[in-house]
Specification:
Helicase, Ruva Protein, domain 3; about 750 residues; about 50% helix; 4 domains; alpha/beta; Rossmann fold; single chain; elongated; nine-stranded mixed sheet
């Protein structure tokens, strides 16, 4: 085994232990984040995306289009906002529209005319037109029943006079009094009729529909402003669901389609993002493809103008359109994930991508960046920016209460929110992060990436920073400390992380049960990881594996359950590796059926990181030698060589809990840098087992609760740690087992032949 490692390898591992000191030296320029400066340049506030920032500056200079490709949380939306901010501060006065878009009646009721005019000028013209129409409306004939009222009044007066004459005549001639009653009733009826006419006249005069109806044809001719640039502040329109109506505009439905009450087309017209905004940000291109708007977008990008149309439906507004084109000289900023690129390449033979490349750039966002000194400085800047953002949020929510009632009132109100008493010293103020707390953030960002990189998916890290702030506030600490960050990590879980935490608890109990049964032959503790698709958060968990080899069958390997294609291929690779060993040692040919069981892996298994664990489990069962359950193993196998796998840091973290009873793990040599994050804020030392180098990490202060990690180049290094056997011992015992099986099968075959001969005799 000694030949597998060189002296430089040991020196490299010893240098690995110096990582925490080197990291802290790189962050020696500050004690807490109050000493960290936030750049004034908006684009520089986006961290880690150096290549994207350089590209977007060039595009901003040439007013080109931008396509941002990357996973959620890498800063696509933030970069687009900064792109707008830079353009607004540099050439915004030239980009911002100055003319209002005005709509006029067209050649018929289904057509409108479009014009661009100064907002103040068109506002004065429209106001004057409204005044002229109002004058005309007031000058129109007023409804009157004066003639009818005068005629009724004359009859009423005659009847009253006749009644008076009849009354006087009744003094002399008594029968004349009958005329009084008759003429009096007639006069009363005429009075009621006069009152009825007056009421009808008043009602008609108070009803505005008649005068308005008389000037409706004039009102319908007044132009309408579809877009007023004075009312728009942002240069960029954010379109979440792009379609023809939101991007181009159209014509609204007319609820008054008959009875001479139709709303003219130009009053129902509205314009979309193309006509209103110099910059259009399409947050997710997948929605644009789903809506089927891509062909129309390409046409607008090509012509820089379009005709406003009502659409193809048969409803109101379906036949409306503009006679003049609308100007659409937009800068298109679009964002998508990697899975959308394939559809964009198929859509119109990649026409959209071609438009972007012709006048702009396709920018691929970084998922992870190397841990350089510049990247570490950007981590400090990022934490500081989040602290400042949280300070602004607290000010916006609690500022008025703090100013009027003080912090005691804030504490009492917060107690109602949390449902428990808070310390008398509780003050709702943002705490700065200490250098050690920033180191914990660096550690978490390293754990979520691999190969010495920092994750660029920062959205979930935002939640961790805020929770750590709340922990520090509840404790009334002066600064956010590492313990606050660790407490936040326990609370802040993605959906997959929460499910993996439950699964890990089940695996922990399962492992303890298997240990108590004493069955360590053929049992190996593998390591698995569950990754969140959206947040890049991973959660490791132990994966018990059982291997069994049965002689006398076909040369096959069986891995039942929900195993993916890569996992099945890994099992076949393990079979080939074991057969290669048997051929190498010259073992007699005996067919072996190999069986691999991922114990209670109900969610399925995918990947090749369990290859080495499968190999050791099968070898353990083959030579009937126990495997220590105190150590786990992960790694991909090709021949005898262990290759790197993903999620090693999270896998190791998942078994470092002392309650699990694990004492260490074997990992591939190529994954050695994945141990670096675990050394932050922990004591460690260099160890060796024979020729195999490793690192001992102390899980508790005072150099207690050691956890050993060995860096293995071949599967035999892992066998030495897990079974205490070196290569020669393993191969010798495998050869002896083959000879025993061969003799047993020959003996069984001889007994069968003898039995047949006796039966034939």
């Amino acid at each position: 085994m000694t030949s597998d490692y060189r002296e430089n390898d040991y020196r490299w591992i010893e240098e690995l232990l110096e990582y925490p000191q080197r990291l802290e030296a790189r962050l020696a320029h500050f004690d807490d984040t109050s000493q960290v400066d936030v750049p004034g340049d908006p684009i520089e506030r986006v961290v880690f995306q150096g290549r994207a920032k350089a590209a977007i500056r060039k595009v901003a200079q040439s007013r080109g289009h931008v396509l941002l490709v990357g996973r959620p949380g890498t800063g696509k939306s933030m970069l687009a906002n900064m792109f707008q901010e830079v353009l607004a501060s540099s050439v915004g006065d030239f980009l911002r529209p100055t003319d209002a878009i005005v709509a006029f009646p067209g050649k018929d009721r289904n057509h409108i005319r479009i014009a661009y005019e100064e907002p103040e000028k068109i506002e004065r013209v429209i106001a004057q037109l409204h005044r002229d129409v109002e004058v005309h409306r007031r000058g129109a004939d007023t409804f009157s029943l004066a003639d009818q009222i005068a005629a009724v009044r004359r009859v009423r007066r005659v009847l009253v006079a006749l009644a008076v004459v009849s009354a006087l005549a009744g003094i002399v001639f008594l029968p004349a009094l009958g005329g009084v009653a008759l003429f009096g009733l007639g006069a009363m009826f005429m009075y009621l009729q006069e009152s009825n006419h007056r009421a009808q006249e008043r009602i008609q005069q108070q009803t505005a529909s008649a005068p308005k109806a008389s000037v409706k044809h004039l009102q319908d001719m007044i132009p309408v402003v579809l877009y007023d640039p004075r009312k728009e502040k942002d240069l960029m329109a954010r379109v979440a669901e792009p379609d023809a109506r939101s991007m181009k505009g159209g014509f609204r439905h007319d609820p008054y389609q008959s009875g001479n009450l139709q709303t003219p087309a130009h009053y129902r017209a509205f314009v979309g993002a193309h006509a209103r905004s110099p910059i259009i940000y399409i947050d997710e291109l997948k929605t644009l493809l789903r809506a089927g708007y891509m062909s129309e977008l390409l046409e607008v990008m090509q012509n820089r103008s379009y005709v406003l149309e009502g659409g193809t439906n048969a409803g109101s507004g379906g036949a409306d359109r503009s006679e003049d084109p609308l100007v659409a000289d937009n800068i298109v900023v679009a964002a998508c994930n990697h899975d959308t690129l394939g559809r964009l390449q198929e859509e119109g033979d990649g026409a959209f991508l071609s438009r972007i490349e012709d006048k702009g750039e396709i920018i691929v966002m970084e998922d992870a960046v190397p841990e350089t000194e510049q990247a570490l400085r950007e981590v400090c800047q990022y934490v500081k920016q989040e602290v400042d953002k949280l300070r602004d949020e607290i000010e916006s929510v609690w500022g008025d209460i703090i100013e009027t009632e003080g912090y005691d009132s804030v504490r009492r109100r917060s107690e109602r929110i949390f449902g428990r008493s808070l310390p008398e010293t509780y003050v709702l103020k943002v705490r700065e992060f200490s250098r050690a707390a920033v180191l914990e953030i660096v550690k978490e960002m390293r754990c979520r990436a691999s190969d010495g990189k920092l994750t660029s998916i920062l959205r979930p890290i935002n939640g961790i920073i805020k929770l750590a702030e709340m922990e520090a506030m509840m404790e009334d600490a002066r600064l956010v400390a590492p313990r606050h960050v660790r407490a936040a990590l326990e609370e802040h879980l993605s959906l997959e992380g929460a499910l993996a935490q439950e699964a890990a608890a089940h695996k922990r109990d399962l492992k303890k049960y298997i240990d108590s049964m004493g069955g360590s032959v053929g049992y190996v503790v593998g390591l698995a990881v569950v990754s969140a698709r959206s947040s890049d958060q991973a959660r490791g968990q132990p994966l018990p594996i059982r291997g069994q080899i049965t002689p006398g069958g076909q040369d096959t390997v069986v891995a039942p359950g929900r195993t993916g294609e890569i996992a099945r291929a890994a099992a076949q690779n393990v079979r080939a590796s074991i057969k290669a060993v048997l051929r190498k040692i010259g073992a007699p040919y005996v067919g072996y059926e190999m069986y691999v069981d991922y114990i209670q892996a109900h969610g399925g298994v995918e990947g090749d990181s369990a290859s080495v664990a499968m190999d050791i489990a099968l070898v353990s069962d083959f030579i009937k030698h126990p495997v220590t359950q105190k150590f786990a193993v992960t790694g991909s196998l090709t021949g005898d060589i262990m290759l790197a796998v993903g999620g090693v840091t999270e896998k190791l973290r998942s078994i470092m809990d002392e309650d699990l009873g694990m004492e260490g793990a074997c990992i591939p040599w190529q994954n050695k840098r994945d141990v670096e994050p675990l050394l932050i804020n922990a004591e460690s030392e260099f160890i060796r087992l024979d020729a195999i180098p490793g690192v001992r990490i102390y899980r508790k202060p005072g150099r207690t609760a050691p956890f050993d990690v060995y860096f293995c180049k071949t599967k035999y290094h892992a066998c030495r740690v897990l079974m205490g056997l070196d290569r020669e011992e393993v191969e010798a015992r495998m050869a002896e087992r083959c000879r025993q099986d061969y003799r047993a099968l020959r003996s069984a075959a001889g007994d069968v032949e003898t039995g047949r001969a006796e039966a034939a005799g």
